[in-house]
Amino acid sequence: MRYRAINKNWEFSRAYKRGKSYVHPHMVLYVVRNRLGYTRVGLTASKKIGHAVKRNRARRVMRAALQEHLSQNIGGYDIILVARGATPRLKSTQLSKTLGLLLRKAGLPDKAAPAQPAAKGE
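The structure corresponding to this sequence follows.
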C-alpha cells in the first residue's frame, strides 16, 4: 500500500509544532490531524543516524513496519516517523513491535493488532 507523502518542509514543521509526539528509544512518532480526509506519512533520518547507507536502512525498516501496522483508511492524519540511533541496527520485527506500541499510545487503529474478542452474552 502506498501512502501520500509529506514532502514540504512547512508540512514537517507543522507536524512538529502542532502534533503530539510519542517517544521510544527506537523511534519517535508525531501525529497531527489534517483536514484533507486522507493520511499522509513522512519518514526522516538525520545525519546523526550515520552515513547514507544507515539512513536509508532506517527509512526502509520504518516503511516496512508502517505497512504492516497502518491501515490506509484511518482518516485525515499527518504521521511522521523519526529514526533514532538504534533504528538502523534493528530487525524489522523489532521495529514493528515498537511501532505497534506507539500507535496504541497515539490512539490510532492498528491493523496488525489482534481483534478484540466479543463480550460474553452477545
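The beta strands are 4-5, 20-23, 27-33, 40-44, 77-83.
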